């Protein structure tokens, strides 16, 4: 019995349970509206795993949400709710794009400069939220929500501005290719590169046809860095204490106010890194007019929650999330089932994550009662 | 000149009304000790259900009512998680925000031939005042929202029920000792907040625009949430916050129509910047109800 208790208390088990339940509920919904859940799941599975290109795309798409997930996770651990990851992400894409267009440095300097510019933009926005909370006591949720919108309209302003707008598009010019973080970008489109890749089906699919870049590796490294800061430094310890019990932190001489600013600064920097790398490494390397949020930051919240309490969990949660979104598009194309089933599925998973967090308490209660009976 | 004053007034009311419904719901819910981040999701499902029912039955009032019910049903999920299962209320709220819009778009594709934008309803909710010569019209929902605000204020401040709700958020064990069920009362408050948020959503799609689109509720639930905090968890404060926000939106529309040098995208930031400035200047420290966010466990110390 004790063994079972421990298994049920393991956060990993409850997370996996939540994911399975999410798939089950989605299947029931699909069945209820007249689609074959088995077929749908098979289509979704194939959409992700049937070609190296698809797997690579899922990995590439997961990088920004892993980073915003880490951002939300970091703030959570410090007792703060970073609903502003979205705005920090957007602010960073704006600054990275502007710097990437204006500056013209050799790649080895250009890349770090424009990425750092973006990181700084996100960090400052995060720190501003922290400062307003520490200094004026304004709830971070409300300022974050406002900053999200301000960042969105700033993005639209820059996209429409005379200096940066690319004619006949809804976005800006692309950044200079000296700022790209794609790997083998010049090589893979060169003659030798094409020759080489032609002989290797796997690489041809996974490298040539995708935005093959460093982003995912950087995201994984950042998960390690977050773990290092939170669990191996004095400041990280202070953050965590403030997250668990503010009064305890204050009574032990920690400057809670300053820690709020620092913590939001780091959280903002992580979201900023997500934005900067998205511009330098993927798509058309620019920003464009946003009608609504693209949810890179908001999805980070779900990623942080599914992560199950460790920064490394964010990597797997990010991959799962990105895989589901990618599969959803293909699901609609192939079976006609609305792709929004994926959003429902993710929502249900998060819902069950919320429920299963209660599991340890429940197990404790039951085992206490059992012991009493004995 | 005169017409632009009228217009500012009308747009202020138009923008603030859906927010007011949801914000009052938020106040009631949070005052009872349950954090409700899911207002956005509840508004979305209300907005969609309102249109779907309004379109297929032809009755906007029935649609409005069902919009509220749909919001209430989604809130029931939140209540089950956060009250019965003592789940983390923020996490559950985020789940609601994913499920609400997801379900709305999913059902929209099923009921409206694969499109995420529904067809317009045949009949919108009636106007209370409509003077087209000065461009002044006020929706009936404005009056309904005002009634909701005043009723909620009266209940919260002047009745025994209101006192109990407020006590639930500060010290639930004290309410329990009076023989009032903490669980049942909180369930009622959470579901009520969902119904109100659903009304808010339906008032967007049945009174202002006449159809559901993926952007119909983009972010209004979060603004309502901000209004709850802005108004320091009071009905009157939250309503004023909604009015302020609506007024700023009206300024954007009215100023944007003139020959102003400010680009429209910069002007659009005004409501959000104004909110932060007002918060810094006037509001100061705000603290949530003491027991809010903490699950109540009977008999625990």
Record the SSE blueprint.
The complex is a heterodimer of chains A (374) and B (301).
Chain A: H1 2-9, H2 11-32, H3 37-49, H4 52-77, H5 85-102, H6 107-136, H7 140-160, H8 185-189, H9 191-198, H10 201-208, H11 215-232, H12 234-244, H13 246-251, H14 256-281, H15 296-306, H16 311-335, H17 341-356, H18 359-373
Helix pairs in contact in A: 1-18, 2-3, 2-17, 3-16, 4-10, 4-11, 4-14, 4-15, 4-16, 5-6, 5-7, 5-14, 5-15, 6-7, 6-14, 11-12, 11-16, 12-14, 15-16, 16-17
Chain B: H1 2-31, H2 39-57, H3 60-84, H4 89-111, E1 127-131, E2 136-139, H5 140-158, H6 160-170, H7 172-177, H8 182-208, H9 220-230, H10 235-257, H11 264-267, H12 270-283
Helix pairs in contact in B: 1-5, 1-8, 1-9, 1-10, 2-3, 2-4, 2-8, 2-9, 3-4, 3-8, 5-6, 9-10, 10-12
Number of strands of chain B: 2
The number of helical segments of chain A is 18
Low-confidence runs of at least 5 consecutive residues of chain B: none
Secondary-structure element string of chain A: HHHHHHHHHHHHHHHHHH
How big a fraction of the residues of chain B is strand? under 5%
- The largest beta-sheet of chain B arranges its strands as 1-2
How are helices and strands ordered from N to C of chain B? HHHHEEHHHHHHHH
Structure explained in plain terms:
By secondary structure, chain A is mostly helical. Chain A is built from 18 helices and no strands. In chain A, α5 packs across α15 and α15 crosses α16. Chain A is globular, with a radius of gyration of 22 Å. The mean pLDDT of chain A is about 90. By secondary structure, chain B is mostly helical. Chain B contains twelve helices and two strands; from the N terminus they run ααααββαααααααα. A two-stranded antiparallel sheet of chain B has the order 1-2. In chain B, β1 and β2 form a beta hairpin. Chain B is globular. Chain B is about 70% helix and about 5% strand. The chains are: A mainly alpha (about 375), B mainly alpha (about 300). Chains A and B meet through α7, α15 and α17 of A and α3, α4, α9 and α12 of B.
